[in-house]
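Propose amino acids for all 413 sites.
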């Protein structure tokens, strides 16, 4: 008998029929003798619906009130699933974040979990109840409702698993595991048996929303055995694993991630003097805008062009900040483009294999896809390209790196 945390995402609890199906599944695990904590998301589309309501009132509503609003979606599902379990004769009790309690900092709409009180959950489990917890939400030290950022129910699940020292955290969703790339974009995408925490973290950071980044961080930090599975189809799913757990022969590239949420700004003709990068990016940071890829080109007239990317929703504000910087520094102009995207190849095998970058650039070149910016880390290479080439780029790279093939059956890619 083990303690399992199971998280069901939005589409898996999207209507009553599915909630009943989830209840059947949880009931089966319970009948097998496992202790179960279930974390649920809001019914699919609900969080978006609530955000749209708020934005009908104001473009940037008050963050505290936003959290009060969007946290309601998850509360609905906890009650419905608990009812469905009770109907089946399974003891169940629902909890919202503050009832658990999941203590977070006070960064509304992107709060971080600080501490989890496991007393209520342990008591219920000891009494044979399934504990059903609302994902995505917590409470700050002053009792304000907070939320953990989009996709945050994954993080709730992993954090509960860490706090309870669960035997496994199972993320049930609408795909049967983590794939070499988004299976909705590339037909030939292949489910991975295993992926390392490090690779999963890069994949998530680079745009694969199958797991929230912080969930992966938590799992790595607290050693939580984590598996992604299909809610309604049987199968082994994908295990997120420590790299050196045995004789795993890692392929060079694990997968390809992409992100459309990118916009690019250039400030041209900046005097090329020490400290200028700070003079440009300092004000951007002060405006709470996160900068992603940065490139600086120096031209022969001793001026520099400085280009960086931000998330699309931050573009108007970033442009405003940059125009005032442009005036102050006597630079030539500010230009922007929000029709760009980022494609990343990720794999721990890159550490020991040279030539990944050149293979990537050659494959894109053959398809006449122009690379606008490049950035790398030890286990990842990302390029910024025009958005209209995104799907072609992902498909091209997927086949260039032989990701359709199963390396354990066909030799390493
Ligand atoms: P949930 O509502 O269950 O949390 P999400 O929509 O957040 O589900 O995440 C699952 C989706 O992630 C899949 O439907 C798939 O389109 C997308 N996805 C993106 N990249 C990948 C990948 N590499 N492997 C699997 N799914 C991916
Ligand atoms: N309901 C929230 C969202 O849509 C949290 C989650 O589903 O993980 O982002
Ligand atoms: Mg999700």
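Proposal:
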């Amino acid at each position: 008998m083990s303690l399992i945390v199971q998280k069901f995402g939005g589409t898996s609890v999207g209507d009553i029929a599915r909630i009943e199906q989830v209840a059947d599944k949880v009931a089966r695990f319970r009948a097998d003798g496992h202790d179960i904590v279930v974390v649920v998301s809001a019914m699919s589309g609900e969080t978006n619906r609530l955000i749209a309501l708020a934005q009908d009132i104001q473009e940037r509503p008050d963050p505290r009130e936003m959290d009060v609003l969007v946290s309601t979606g998850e509360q609905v599902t906890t009650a419905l699933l608990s009812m469905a379990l009770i109907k089946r004769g399974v003891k169940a009790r629902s909890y919202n974040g503050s009832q658990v309690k999941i203590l977070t900092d006070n960064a509304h709409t992107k709060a971080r979990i600080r501490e989890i009180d496991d007393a209520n959950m342990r008591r219920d489990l000891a009494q044979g109840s399934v504990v059903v917890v609302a994902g995505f939400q917590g409470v700050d030290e002053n009792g304000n409702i907070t939320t953990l950022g989009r996709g945050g129910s994954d993080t709730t699940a992993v954090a509960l698993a860490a706090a309870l020292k669960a035997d496994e955290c199972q993320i049930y969703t609408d795909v049967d595991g983590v794939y070499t790339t988004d299976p909705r974009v590339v037909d030939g995408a292949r489910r991975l048996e295993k992926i390392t925490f490090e690779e999963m973290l890069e994949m998530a950071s680079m745009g694969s929303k199958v797991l929230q980044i912080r969930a992966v961080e938590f799992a790595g930090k607290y050693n939580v055995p984590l598996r992604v599975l299909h809610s309604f189809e049987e199968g082994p799913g994908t295990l997120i694993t420590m790299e050196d757990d045995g004789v795993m022969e890692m392929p060079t590239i694990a997968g390809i991630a992409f992100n459309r949420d990118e916009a690019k700004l250039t400030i041209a003709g900046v005097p090329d003097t020490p400290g200028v990068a700070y003079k440009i990016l300092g004000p951007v940071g002060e405006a709470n805008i996160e900068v992603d890829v940065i490139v600086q080109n120096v031209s022969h007239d001793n001026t520099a062009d400085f280009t960086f990317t931000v998330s699309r929703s931050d573009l108007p504000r970033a442009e405003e900040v940059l125009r005032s910087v442009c005036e102050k520094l006597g630079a030539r102009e500010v230009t922007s483009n929000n029709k760009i995207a980022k494609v990343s190849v990720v794999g721990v095998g890159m550490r020991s294999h040279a030539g990944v970058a050149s293979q990537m650039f050659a494959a894109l070149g053959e398809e006449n896809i122009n690379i606008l910016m490049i950035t790398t880390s030890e286990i990842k290479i990302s390029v910024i390209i025009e958005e209209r080439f995104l799907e072609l780029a992902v498909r091209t790279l997927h086949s260039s790196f032989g990701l359709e093939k199963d390396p354990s059956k066909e030799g390493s890619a």
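The chain has a mean pLDDT of 94. The first strand starts at residue 3 and ends at 8.
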